Amino acid sequence: MISWTDHASMMLPEDPLHPVPWTRMDELSAKLRIDVPISQPDSNDYRITLHCFNKETSALKNALIMTSRIEWKSPKTTVFFNAFHADLLSIVNECLSTHKFQIFTKRNCIYKWKSPEQLVEHEISCPEDVFLAPVNLESLDMVRRHRGQFPGVEEFVATLILHKPSLGVYSRRTGELCAWVLCNEYYALASLHTLEAHRRKGYAQLLCNALSEQLLRSNIVIGALVEDTNIPSLTLFKSLNFKSIQPFHYISAARSVTAKE
C-alpha cells in the first residue's frame, strides 16, 4: 500500500496502482482487516508487537497501560507480546503488574535465518526404514499436542498443515509419523519435533535440510525461532549455516484469578 502526504508528488502517469491518501487510511484499513485471518475484532485474545526507536520509552509505556483498546479488566482477556527486544521487558512487566495480569508463558528466542543465496543443492538421503512426505490432517491432534497451547491453536495448526509446506518422517513398516516440521505464516520452520522413541536418529537434521532446500529453491527466505536454552536446536541450525539475529522475548499472560479492583 502506498501513502502520500505531499499532494504535489501525486502527479503520476496513468497506472492501475494508485497512491492512497492518508485521509482514507482508516477507511481502507477497516476494509482490509475483514480479510485478515488473524484479525478477530470481538476476540479477547490480543497479539501485541512493541518497538521503540530510541531509549525514551515513557510514552510507549503510558500508551500501553492507559489504552482502552485492550479490555484489561475482562477475566477473559489474554495478551501475547510478540518478538520484542530486552530493553522493553521492563515496560511489559510494569504493564502486566499494573493490570494484575499473570504470566503463564515466557520465552527468550533467537531468530535463525537463511537466504536463497546460501542454497547448496545436494542429494537428500533417507534411511531405508523411513520416507519423507508432507504432514496431513490425520496427524493434526498429535502435532497440536506437541506445540505451545493458546486459544485457537487447533485451527491454527490445521491451517498451516493445509496451506503451508511441511514434511514428516514416516515409518515404512507401520506408516507412523515419527518426526515433523511445519512452516508458519511467515515461512519460518515451526513445530519441529521428534517423538521420544525416534530421537537420536538424525531426523531433525533430515527434515530441516530437506524443507530448507525446497523453500530456498523457491526463492524464499526461511527462518526459525529457537529458545535460547535449546542448545541441540541452536547447534543444528548453526551446522546448517543459518545466520542469527539477537534474542527476542515472547510473553503470554492472562488476568490473575485473584485480581480485585
From TrEMBL:
Domain N-acetyltransferase: 130-258
UniProt-listed PROSITE patterns: GNAT (PS51186)
SUPFAM superfamilies attached to this UniProt entry: Acyl-CoA N-acyltransferases (Nat)
Source taxon at top rank: Eukaryota
InterPro entries: Acyl-CoA_N-acyltransferase, Acyl_CoA_acyltransferase, GCN5-like_dom, GNAT_dom
Pfam families given in the database record: FR47
GO molecular function: acyltransferase activity, transferring groups other than amino-acyl groups
Record's protein name: N-acetyltransferase domain-containing protein
Annotated organism of origin: Bemisia tabaci
